[in-house]
Amino acid sequence: MRILLTNDDGIDAEGLACLERIARRFSDPASSSPKGGGPTEIWTVAPLFEQSGKGRGITLTEPLRVQKFGERRFAVTGTPTDCVVLAVNELMDAPPDLVLSGVNRGHNVGEDCSYSGTVAGALQGMAFGIRSIALSQSLERFHDEVTAHWETTEAFAPGIISRLLESKWAPGVVMNLNFPARPPEAVTEVEVTVQGFREAGEMAAVKRTDLRGRDYWWMSFRGRKQDHAPGTDLRAMDEGKISVTPLHIDLTHQAMVHDLKGVLGGAPPKRVEG
Fold it and tell me: How far apart, in whole angstroms, are the C-alpha atoms of residue 4 and residue 73?
């Protein structure tokens, strides 16, 4: 099996090192590998610098440069999407069987999924017709001194990935895995969830002033406690569960398509009504 690893936290991120250890488990005959052991070829192509929040962004207005950090290990001066495109089309000698993106420092749930570079890396793998999984490790608090429970993702991800690979996936689906901010012994349940949504106004811009008196802003999250709906990825994180959410890129609201067909269709209207 050939596995491509990427992330949005950068080539030196702790989460990427965690993901590499997880991928190596699929070469261990004693592991839960669906291939039953045997050699696994691991490729790592990740951003040179952090690309959090870049979503499905691709680099069109400047060149991309690639640095080789070892055998089958590269860093790209671009986004996670750039990394997967370059890996599959240019750097690898054959397409991967699996794309793993992460492990992100901080969960990617709710509306995070629409701008997450971690999820975007998996989506690009899906666009190439490759089974792709995004992995994220939740934090008690998003601050530099907080250490993520990487051991939780490392303990449970191999078994979950193994089961996912043995199951049937609908076309165009990526799997979004989120691990709670708890040590492994405190995690007792996996829940298959739907994407939740936070209350409006959770994202905010914090205004500050530099030493020359000029204003600038930091994008931030208010972090207010909310009561999230049961069955959602957000609620699973609140309850200390592992969340597995099948996502797809189709943004069409099918029910609204049906409703609009009763209002629009055929010759275009030529006058303002009402």
Answer: 10
ω before 103 within 30° of 0 (cis)?
yes
Contacts for 97 with CB less than 8 Å, ≥ 6 apart: 1, 2, 3, 130, 131
C-beta of residue 115 within 8 angstroms of C-beta of residue 152: no
The per-residue pLDDT for range 168-198, each reduced to its tens digit, is 999 999 999 999 999 999 999 999 999 998 8
pLDDT at 39 over 90: no
**What SS3 string covers 166-220?**
HCCCCCCEEEEEEECCCCHHHCCCEEECECCCCCCCCEEEEEEECCCCCEEEEEE
| Residue 43 DSSP code | E
Tracing tokens 């995004």 back to the chain, one arrives at: 134
Neighbours of 37 (CB within 10 A): 12
Q: How far apart are CA 12 and CA 21, in angstroms?
A: 14
